[in-house]
Amino acid sequence: MSLLGTIVSKILHPFGGGEAQAQTPAETSTTSTSAPTGGSDAASGGDVPKVDGKVDVEAVLNDLASKAGQPLNWRTSIVDLMKLLHLDSSLSARKELAQELHYTGDTNDSATMNVWLHKQVIKKLEENGGKVPDDLKD
């Protein structure tokens, strides 16, 4: 599974109820996805927070953050978001994600790339059935 697919799956299916099919920019216009419909994950018996039939991304990530044992600012930091999901947040991993998302900027300018990556991941979460907070939308 792609790194983006792993991120989307861990947030939109936090109890392992299924794998999200995260769309890359090239697939966005030709591939459609349906929003998750159930409120409970049969595999684990856990409830996935829903808003208007969509997974409440903020609730899922805030819940993970409350259990992280360290302060992680997932709202603005791609590094912290990846750490929260127990993913490799190294520069090389972020460059891999940037390549996957067709980043055209300088990957050696990590600050600019990180901001772009965070915005793209939030956008992809919304495109794949997540309800993201209004303040995180472009």
Automatic annotation (TrEMBL):
Biased composition (Low complexity): 20-48
Domain of life of the native organism: Bacteria
Spans traversing the lipid bilayer: none
Region (Disordered): 16-51
Sequence ranges assigned to domain DUF3597 in this UniProt record: 4-133
Family matches, as InterPro entries: DUF3597
Protein's UniProt name: DUF3597 domain-containing protein
Origin organism lineage: Bacteria, Pseudomonadati, Pseudomonadota, Alphaproteobacteria, Hyphomicrobiales
